[in-house]
Amino acid sequence: MLPVFEAMEKELDALRRQERFRRLPDTGVRDGRFLEFGGESLLNLSSNDYLGIGSNRALVEEYFDGCHRYTEDYWMASSSSRLLTGNHRLYGALELQLAALYGRQASLVFNSGYHANTGILPAISTRQDLILSDRLNHASIIDGGRIADAAFRRYRHLDYAHLESLLDSCRSSYRQIIIVTESVFSMDGDIADLKRLVELKERYGAMLVVDEAHGAGTFGTQGLGVAEAIGVIGGIDILVGTFGKAFASTGAYAVMDSLVRDYLVNTMRPLIFTTALPPVVLGWSARVLERQRCMQQERGHLREISSLLREGFRSRGLRVYGESHIVPVVLGENDLAVRKAAELRAHGILALPVRPPAVPEQSARVRFSLRADLAWEDLAGIPELLIP
Hints:
It is a single chain. By secondary structure, the protein is an alpha/beta fold. The protein folds into two domains: about 130 residues, Aspartate Aminotransferase, domain 1 (Alpha-Beta Complex), CATH 3.90.1150.10; about 220 residues, Type I PLP-dependent aspartate aminotransferase-like (Major domain) (Aspartate Aminotransferase, domain 2, 3-Layer(aba) Sandwich). It is built from 16 helices and 15 strands. It has a seven-stranded mixed β-sheet with strand order 4-10-9-8-7-5-6, sandwiched between helices. A four-stranded mixed β-sheet has the order 1-2-3-13. Strands 11-12-15-14 form a four-stranded antiparallel β-sheet. The longest helix has 19 residues. The N and C termini lie far apart (about 45 Å). The mean pLDDT is about 95. InterPro entries: Aminotransferase_I/II_large, AON_synthase_class-II, PyrdxlP-dep_Trfase, PyrdxlP-dep_Trfase_major, PyrdxlP-dep_Trfase_small. Its cofactor is pyridoxal 5'-phosphate.
């Protein structure tokens, strides 16, 4: 065996011993709140379909019925990058729709949130710049910061005094400082103080990039995210969102000023060198984006059941983080998280364990991702099942 394969085998054996070995799950048909998973029909509490749109069969059938009637607009493939022949007119329509919704000059649509985050930061920064990232930002943001030529440092999670000390001590050493954060953090379910971040970026002349992947659709009157909910959209230089979660589609987007858009079109490698999204996906994203604007009742229900479940865990002495529709119960040891997830599955509930390196060591957890199509009766008995 080649040395590289021997090293792989040893590393995988170590992951198995640590209860960190992962396998691709076998998933099947979605039926509303339930998912076929490993041959079983389970209550799905591990989906990012926060508004339940992805399980809305009637909406999907209505959309595809329209596609059949207008086939010239809804091809299944683009077969080219956007800068060649893949920039279908539905791209332009969707980007105008996004810019108008957010009240910004321009927007760009990308193939995924990972593409967006690994492409934007390297494009907008140079060796003369510094990127300051929240310590618990998503892996895509961390990777984008590492790919960039800029210096890359992380401030303590939600510790804005620490961030300010870095801004104050570093601002004279760099051409530009870029602050980057999630709005709703994917592993802890807590929320960044975007108002404070806007204040800091203005005080120190920094640039602010915010990833609303888990906030878009779930916060704000029109579902535009935490920035809309607290009224700071205009204070964020680049606001990133995704179609792949609450909007139940594929791809991502960012809203910004026209100057920044033009610069990204000319410099952002994942945009330049990636085959464009299929028109059928672009049309669906536009349809869902408009549909979700009126889903205030669903957003309110999502907040209510999330609060009730979190309180149910806390009242039983369990350690639970956050203040959103992502409800992680931190159990510590990997084997305990795996065991509790298996016990939930035996009760017909799919809530998967999250272990390092996705979370810090000794903070393995079972993470519940809630959706607006769930009733409280679906969730009421779960806290009792998590007691060690």
